[in-house]
Design a protein that fits this description.
4 strands, alpha+beta, flat, 4-stranded antiparallel sheet, Alpha-Beta Plaits, about 100 residues
Length: about 100
């Protein structure tokens, strides 16, 4: 079943965050992941959610998503992001067809 990492990023150091954006795609691809949403314009439809940069990643399974999250390939980029932004991030399993 596919799994999604959903991220809401509020960038505090734009120059460093640009470096993060350069490092991340190859680490995601190494774990069969792909970008579904990457920083496009957002509009809040309900509630008072004040979004930052929204990113949605898709992986074939939750296990692959967690392998990426904990991987040596992503580790240097993760450290940059954590110092250049505040982030809310979740892992959500997708829908599995039963037919």
């Amino acid at each position: 079943m596919p799994a999604y990492i959903i991220v809401d990023v509020h960038i505090t150091d734009p120059a460093s965050y640009e470096e993060y954006k350069k490092l991340t795609p190859s680490s995601i691809a190494a774990y069969e992941g792909k970008f579904i949403v990457r920083g496009g314009e957002t509009k809040t439809l309900e509630g008072d959610w004040k979004t930052g940069r929204i990113v949605v990643l898709e992986f074939p399974t939750a296990e692959r998503a967690m392998e990426w999250w904990n991987s040596p390939e992503y580790s240097p980029a993760k450290l940059i992001r954590q110092s250049a932004a505040t982030t809310n991030m979740i892992l959500a399993e997708g829908y599995q067809k039963l037919y």
